[in-house]
Amino acid sequence: MLNNLLSFIKHRLKDRTTRIKLTNYISTLINIFLIAWTAWLSHEGQSFYLILMVIYYVFLVLGKLHLVMKSGQDAFKLNISALLFLIIGFSFIVINVWLILNQVKFAQPDIQSMLNFAFIGFVKIGVAIRGLFIHSFQSSAINKTFKLFNFADGLVSIALVQRTILLYENVTDAVQISAYFGILISLIIIGLGGWLLYYEKRSRGV
Fold this sequence. Notes:
By secondary structure, the chain is mainly α.
């Protein structure tokens, strides 16, 4: 029975559409886990920064859930996804501006914590970039938009990894330096959201 089940799964995974859907589901579940984990850390540590990060992840997951629920539909409007994309960008700007205005300090991470965080961040970045460019021309509007959400999260990971490395190297004003870089990342994400809105209007001849 187990062999039959494994054979069925293997057969199903040969279908590219099924693999894409499965990847999207897993990606969304990972982000939901990050919400729960970050919320728990914010409760334990009473950190307003982590609360802001929870808000960021909530909007990221809402965007992905919207795409997952619309998966398989031929007619798809990008306006909701574009709006959520813009909110994601603005929420990350708020986080970084808050870090700058409050001169927030973080503890210096140890080598193991830094390596673990950097590894996770670079994996997210690599997966996002690969998904954005590999077979993109064959993807539906929903899958292309999902890839953009992963790419946006990958950009955020770059800023977070940069801050972790700077903190480990004990660089002066590491948090503020990474916060300014985070604002730049946010503007790129907002630009992508604006492009999605433009693409939606152009595709419908508005």
